């Protein structure tokens, strides 16, 4: 039974929460696979004078995915670093305008990231990694997924800023619980 003191989430909000939980689980799974590959390779090299041929290359690809997917999770949690010493002294409308301008510029950068990653994935679809023989497009696909995910989150933030206006709650920067 849900707590009546907490605001109720819509079905879409609950679905998004579930999707991000699955994304966090995926990040944990990627990290576990990387640990097993790298540790197993070290043990086999020094203990048995052999090794896992694909361990280094696959862990490098997984690390790229870990970073790009992690950036989307951190963006949703509002955990990216920010400098607010210039914005804090501004009046409420000035802070709102700065947040809006920052969000629009960030959206532009995320769209450029997604478009560039798409172009690179198409260009490198036929190129294969030497050991795993995976298409190098998989590496660029991580940036594409990240660019799209970040763009959606930033677009939702822009919509929230515009609908709440300069005097709304969205005008104030939100600080993650772990960052002060």
Structure characterization notes:
Helix 3 runs antiparallel to helix 4. By secondary structure, the chain is mainly α. The protein is elongated.
Could you name the key traits of this structure?
180 residues, mainly alpha, elongated
Unreliable residue stretches: none
Can you write the helix and strand succession as a string?
A: HHHH
Question: What structural class results from the helix and strand content?
Answer: mainly alpha
Mass-distribution shape: elongated
Cα gyration radius (Å): 21 Å
Beta percentage is: under 5%
SSE blueprint:
Blueprint: H1 11-48, H2 55-76, H3 92-123, H4 137-164
Helix pairs in contact: 1-2, 2-4, 3-4
What does this entry show, briefly?
This protein has 180 residues and is mainly α. The protein is 67% helix and 0% strand. It is built from four helices and no strands.
């Amino acid at each position: 039974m849900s707590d009546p003191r907490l605001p109720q989430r819509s079905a879409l909000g609950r679905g998004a929460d579930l999707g991000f939980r699955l994304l966090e689980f995926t990040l944990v799974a990627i990290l576990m696979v990387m640990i097993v590959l790298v540790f197993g390779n070290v043990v086999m090299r020094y203990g048995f004078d052999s090794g896992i041929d694909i361990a280094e290359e696959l862990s490098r690809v997984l690390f790229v995915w870990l970073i790009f997917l992690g950036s989307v999770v951190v963006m949703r949690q509002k955990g990216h670093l920010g400098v607010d010493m210039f914005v804090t002294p501004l009046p409420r409308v000035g802070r709102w305008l700065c947040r809006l301008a920052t969000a629009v510029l960030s959206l532009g950068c995320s769209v450029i990231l997604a478009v560039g990653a798409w172009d690179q994935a198409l260009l490198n679809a036929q190129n294969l990694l030497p050991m795993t023989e995976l298409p190098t497009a998989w590496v660029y696909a991580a940036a594409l997924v990240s660019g799209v995910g970040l763009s959606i989150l930033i677009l939702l933030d822009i919509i929230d800023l515009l609908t709440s206006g300069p005097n709304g709650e969205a005008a104030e920067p939100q600080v993650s619980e772990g960052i002060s």
